[in-house]
Amino acid sequence: MPLSMTKIAYRSKSLDSLRNWVESGTEAHMRTRYLPKRxxxxxxxxLYWIMDHTIVARCEILGFEQRPDSHWTIRLAPKLIRVxxxxxxxxQGWRYLAEEDAPRDLTDGEEPxxxxxGRLAGKLSKLGLI
Length: 130
Hints:
- It is a single chain.
- By secondary structure, the protein is α+β, with helices and mostly antiparallel strands.
- It has a single domain (4-126), classed as ph1033 like fold (Roll), CATH 3.10.590.
- The protein has helices at 15-22, 39-42, 118-126; strands at 4-8, 28-32, 46-51, 54-66, 72-76, 81-87, 94-97.
- Strands 1, 2, 3, 4, 5, 6 and 7 form a 7-stranded mixed β-sheet that branches.
- Strand 3 (46-51) and strand 4 (54-66) form a beta hairpin.
């Protein structure tokens, strides 16, 4: 089973702007400073996007390439797949995500439904209310 990762979509203001960027060409390229140690396990896995403390979508990871500036490019499939929203605390960089912890894909036409915003869920969790 391929390994996946999470990353904050910090440059995207909305899910539509993220979709426009991902689906604008034959591949989407994301730059990272360091190559993940487990990168070989990640090919065929997914990069799960976090917006407003919630995992909202994913892209398939096609591979990794070193850049001339010694950073790395993560090559992504040009298709954004919506997933069932799942609260996720903000973090810097990327984090590994095992398949059993990944949210399920939404089917075509399926709406995410009522989901508590990630920040609110985090605050309520700290208070022991959820």
